[in-house]
Design a protein that fits this description.
This protein has helices at 18-31, 80-85, 105-112, 122-129, 131-140, 153-170, 194-204, 249-253, 268-284, 319-326, 331-349, and strands spanning 5-12, 37-44, 50-52, 90-95, 116-117, 148-152, 175-179, 189-191, 210-215, 220-228, 233-242, 258-261, 289-297, 303-309. Helix 4 (122-129) crosses helix 5 (131-140). The strands form 3 sheets. A 5-stranded mixed sheet has the order 3-2-1-4-5, sandwiched between helices. Strands 12-11-10-13-14 form a 5-stranded antiparallel sheet. The chain has 3 domains: 5-117, Rossmann fold, CATH 3.40.50; 147-215, ATP-grasp fold, A domain (Dna Ligase, domain 1), CATH 3.30.1490.20; 218-348, D-amino Acid Aminotransferase, Chain A, domain 1 (2-Layer Sandwich), CATH 3.30.470. The protein is built from 11 helices and 14 strands. The chain is an alpha+beta fold and 357 residues long. Strand 1 (5-12), helix 1 and strand 2 form a beta-alpha-beta unit. The protein is globular. The longest helix is centred in the C-terminal third of the chain and has 19 residues, at 331-349.
């Protein structure tokens, strides 16, 4: 009798974070115990096509080994035979970062398929991806955060001068311009003048139709990892120390110009407040599985929540797994815990009534 858990991995994706997702998939596969899991990979191309691969039985040395593009998959984005093969006795792990994967879209599909999956649900993923919705939820729960302005592309095209004036007057400089729906610091710029602001906004609109501009907070960048469902737990705190002007995409993934300090040197009082705010943010979006909460801590120990990430960087060298390693849970154990949490949430949801009888 096979007592292994069937684990189906989704990775790649139609997103600017496609390559990051590929690295995440390779890391997770190489950390899995093949005595405990039957592992089935599904590669999602940059065009959004899904390509299932053969069962994996050993480590992967090159991410190119995880690209399963075939000509017989060209007729549909998701092959019907793949959907038919997904059953409710397996767990799906969406190792997807950014839109079309981390934003509730894939989670909605998995809900319709009635299958257990790792991580946050539809609403939590959608709110966690959209920085404006996230901040509005945080405000409702009285979580202290930087001031911000947001606008749509149509607004920018029609009233760019008024928007620039509003940003300069209400936020000042420096400020940060971001696409509302993206992660990994893609399309983010730090601005110290109106001229830079215009260029940064144009760049951000290349990645999304909604842009958010946040006031610059002078403070340390502190992060907390949250793990759980109804009773979430917090990790140790970690500090991001970028050697560049700010923690951009290159600093995160390419040039090794960032130092991660784990544990962060904060007082017990600050740490307890960080944990309290992390749990509050997690519960505010109805989180499940995992979330990384990011904060600014000023020299006066004022704490501002910056954002949460519902599928944070997840290689062994990313902050989220490193924080749990510091807290006594290594990478392989963390993956297994997330799968367990997915199964627990799925089983709980099966008890919900869908009829009046």
């Amino acid at each position: 009798m096979n007592n292994k858990t069937i684990l189906r991995l989704l990775y790649g994706g139609k997103s600017a974070e496609h390559d990051v997702s590929m690295q995440t998939a390779r890391s997770v596969i190489n950390a899995l115990d093949f005595e405990k899991f039957d592992v089935y990979p599904v590669y999602i191309s940059k065009e959004g096509k899904w390509f299932p691969g053969p069962k994996l039985t050993e480590e992967i040395t090159d991410v190119n080994e995880l690209v399963f593009v075939r000509s017989d998959n060209e007729d549909s984005l998701i092959p019907p035979q793949l959907l038919a093969s997904i059953s409710n006795d397996e767990v799906v792990f969406p190792l997807l970062h950014g839109p079309n994967g981390e934003d509730g879209t894939v989670q909605g599909l998995l809900e319709l398929l009635n299958v257990a999956y790792v991580g946050n649900g539809v609403a939590a993923s959608a709110v966690g991806m959209d920085k404006v919705f996230m901040k509005q939820v945080f405000a409702e729960h009285r979580l202290k955060q930087p001031n911000y302005v947001f606008f749509m592309k149509k607004d920018w095209e029609e009233t760019s001068g008024d928007i620039i004036t509003r940003i300069a007057e209400s936020l000042g400089f420096p400020c940060f311009v971001k696409p509302a729906n993206l992660g990994s610091s893609v399309g983010i710029s730090k601005c110290t003048s109106k001229e830079q602001l215009v260029e940064a906004i144009e760049l951000a609109f290349e990645y999304d139709r909604k842009v958010i501009v946040e006031e610059g907070i002078v403070g340390r960048e502190i992060e907390i990892a949250v793990l759980g469902n109804d009773e979430p737990k917090c990790s140790a705190a970690g500090e991001i120390v970028p050697k560049t002007d700010f923690y951009d995409y290159e600093a995160k993934y390419e040039d090794n110009s960032t130092e991660l300090l784990i544990p962060a040197q904060v007082s017990n009082g600050v740490y307890e407040r960080l944990k309290e705010m992390s749990i509050k943010a997690f519960q505010a979006i109805d989180g499940s599985g995992l979330v990384r909460a990011d904060f600014f801590v000023t020299e006066n120990d004022d704490i501002y929540i910056n954002e949460i990430n519902t599928m944070p960087g997840f290689t062994p060298f990313s902050m989220y797994p490193l924080l749990w390693k510091e807290s006594g849970l290594d990478y392989s154990q963390l993956i297994e815990k997330l799968v367990q949490l997915a199964i627990e949430r799925y089983e709980e949801k099966q008890k919900v009534k869908h009829t009046m009888t």
